Structure formats: C-alpha cells, structure tokens
C-alpha cells in the first residue's frame, strides 16, 4: 500500500519507516494543499497535519485514495462531504494532548490575569527590575468563576486545574457529562448564563456548523464586564469582530488566543490572494488584535509538547495499521 505523509519532522520519519518497512512510502516535509501538490498521485493513504487543506480538488489528485488520516483532534481542514462522496475513510486523533492543551490554556490565563508577559517584557526591554506596581497589578484566580464551553477530554483537564486554583466552574456543552460534573462539583448552564457569570471564558469544543461563532456580535454584550477570554480550540468558535468590540468597549479585560479565524491567511500575505472580502476583513482584524496591549496571541502552539507529538504519531500509525487490517478505528464522527 502506498502511504503519503506530509509535514513531518526527521524523528517522525524514522518511526514511520520502522513501523511500515514493507510499504511504499512518500515523505514530504511540507503541508499539502491545492497550491502545493506532490509529484506523486498514486497514494492510497494520506497522513496530514492541520496546515494541510484537503479539498475536493486535492482529493481528485489521488484516484487510488482510500484513507485520509489527520494527526490532530480537529478535522475542519478536511472536506468531509467530498470524502464521503468518494467513499473514503477519514480518521483522526481523538485524544493526545488533553493535559498538554489544558496546561497551555492556563498558561495564557495566568499571563493575562497576572500580567506575566508584560512584566517579563518590561525587564527585558528596560534591562531593569524597577517597575510600576499599579501598571503590572493583576487579579487572583481563587474565588473567580471559570466559564468553560466544551467538557470533553481537554475541557475536563482544564476544570481539574481550575479546581486546583480554587476557582468556581460553570460549563456549557451540547452533551453534558453529569457524572463527571457531580464528582468534580460544577453545574451545566445555558451559554447565555455562562457568559453572564464567567470571570474567565475558555473554549474546548470542536469547530462545527453548530459551534461556528457561538460567541458573536450579539451575545458578546452579555459577557460579564471585565472578563478574560481564552481560545485554544478553533478560531471560528469566536467571532473575531466580537472580540474586538468587547475589547474596545471594555467588556473584555484581555484576550488570549492560540487559534484564529483565517489562520493560514493571517500567517502569510501570500495567502491573501483570492481571499473573499469577508475573509480579508478577518485577517485585518487579526492584525489589529496583534497590536492591542491586552491581547496575547500564540501561533497555534498549545499542542506542541514532545510527549503530545509522540502520542499523535503513535495513534496515527495505529489508525493506518487498523485500516490495513480491515478494522478502521478513530473514525471522524
């Protein structure tokens, strides 16, 4: 079977060749998308990462394709309808970095609430430990309310960390886990109630048509004044314009983002070519956010720990092996 892997590092290639010595392998350090297609087109398996874009047009490049497997929990970079029309199997990694992303989430929360980044930057910039006490004054987390949208694997880890900080927790989820909520001690509430109660908002749900812009220009006005917003899930969950409005009107005290709407286009001006007017406006808004003093933005890095990447690859290789054995696993829901 011809296996094609994209966006790999050297250590990953070594593991792949050890796991599939009898397979015909194609290894590419780059992502795959319509503008960057490989020379080969006989692959039966595509193993991709989040920067790849698997569209109907990309799929047409591979007439022998049987399986698309992504080395990620998110799968919004794959045209699932096009895959379904082709009868392709699509697999993902349902859990690899539950604690990894949760730890990063709290890193952003602590940086925002205790102004850690600004304090470090001040010392580096001024080369002095002299500082203004009021300018770097933060707020405690103990006793504050964390509002969490999405209580799957990552969300549960965030809740456990929040409880360790002595925070109150309220949650919203389309599929609430009543047993876990009772054991840990938090209620499920409506989204509107959560926005009104939370001192810190954080998001850990998948990006789907149902979660697109669940925080938007309308309900941003319901958010508790002075709240902090952190998103390490997917950019499209929170409307970019709504965050800007919340910051400018003082509804939000600060924002921490590891994910963004129009993420690829924001990273490179080359990607702006052919972008719709609405998408180009989001890119402009992202760049405005970058310049705001109470916004911390990281480049989709919450997943990026040594241990998490090893778990991702191990699960992906297991997905391919299971497919070859006729028992596919971790199918995209």
What's this entry about, in short?
With 333 residues, the chain is an alpha/beta fold. The protein has twelve helices and eleven strands. It has helices at residues 10-19, 56-59, 80-86, 98-114, 116-126, 153-164, 178-184, 191-197, 240-248, 263-267, 277-291, 306-324, and strands at residues 2-6, 24-28, 45-48, 67-70, 89-91, 145-149, 168-172, 200-203, 227-231, 252-257, 295-297.
Could you explain how this protein is built, in words?
With 333 residues, this protein is α/β, with parallel strands linked by helices. Helix content is 37%, strand content 15%. It is built from 12 helices and 11 strands. The protein has helices at residues 10-19, 56-59, 80-86, 98-114, 116-126, 153-164, 178-184, 191-197, 240-248, 263-267, 277-291, 306-324; strands spanning 2-6, 24-28, 45-48, 67-70, 89-91, 145-149, 168-172, 200-203, 227-231, 252-257, 295-297. Strands 7-6-8-9-10-11 form a 6-stranded parallel beta sheet, with helices on both faces. It has a 5-stranded parallel beta sheet with strand order 2-1-3-4-5, with helices on both faces. Strand 1, helix 1 and strand 2 (24-28) form a beta-alpha-beta unit. Helix 4 packs across helix 6. The longest helix has 19 residues, at 306-324. The radius of gyration is 21 Å and the shape is globular. The relative contact order is 0.12. The model has no long low-confidence stretch (mean pLDDT 94).
Tally of individual helices: 12
Percent of sequence in beta strands: 5-15%
Tell me the radius of gyration. 21 Å
Number of strands: 11
Helix percentage: 25-40%
Alpha carbon gap, first and last residue: 25 Å
Classification by helices and strands: alpha/beta
């Amino acid at each position: 079977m011809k296996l094609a892997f994209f966006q790999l590092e050297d250590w990953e290639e070594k593991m792949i060749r050890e796991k599939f010595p009898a397979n015909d392998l194609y290894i590419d350090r780059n992502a795959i998308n319509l503008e960057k297609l490989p020379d080969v087109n006989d692959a039966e398996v595509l193993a991709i990462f989040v920067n790849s874009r698997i569209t109907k047009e990309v799929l047409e490049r591979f007439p022998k394709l049987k399986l698309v497997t992504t080395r990620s929990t998110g799968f919004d970079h794959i045209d699932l309808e096009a895959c379904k029309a082709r009868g392709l199997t699509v697999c993902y990694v349902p859990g690899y970095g539950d604690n990894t992303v949760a730890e990063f989430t709290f890193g952003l929360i602590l940086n925002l609430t205790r102004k850690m980044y600004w304090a470090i930057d001040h010392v580096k910039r001024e080369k002095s430990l002299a500082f203004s006490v009021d300018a770097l004054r933060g707020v405690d987390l103990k006793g504050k309310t964390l509002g969490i949208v999405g209580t799957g694997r990552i969300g549960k880890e965030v809740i456990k960390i929040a409880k360790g900080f002595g925070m109150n927790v309220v949650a919203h989820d389309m599929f609430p886990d009543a047993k876990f909520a009772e054991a840990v001690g938090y209620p499920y509430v409506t989204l509107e109630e959560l926005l009104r109660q939370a001192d810190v908002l954080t998001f850990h749900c998948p990006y789907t048509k149902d979660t697109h812009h669940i925080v938007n220009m309308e309900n941003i006005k319901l958010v508790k004044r002075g709240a902090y917003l952190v998103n390490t899930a997917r950019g499209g969950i929170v409307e970019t314009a709504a965050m800007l409005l919340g910051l400018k009107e003082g509804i939000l005290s600060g924002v921490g983002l590891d994910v963004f709407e129009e993420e690829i286009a924001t990273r490179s001006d080359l990607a702006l070519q052919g972008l719709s007017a609405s998408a180009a406006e989001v890119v402009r808004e992202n760049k405005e956010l970058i310049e705001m003093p109470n916004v911390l933005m990281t480049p989709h890095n919450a997943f990026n720990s040594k241990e998490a990447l090893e778990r991702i690859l191990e699960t992906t290789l297991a997905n391919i092996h299971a497919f070859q054995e006729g028992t596919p696993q971790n199918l995209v829901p």
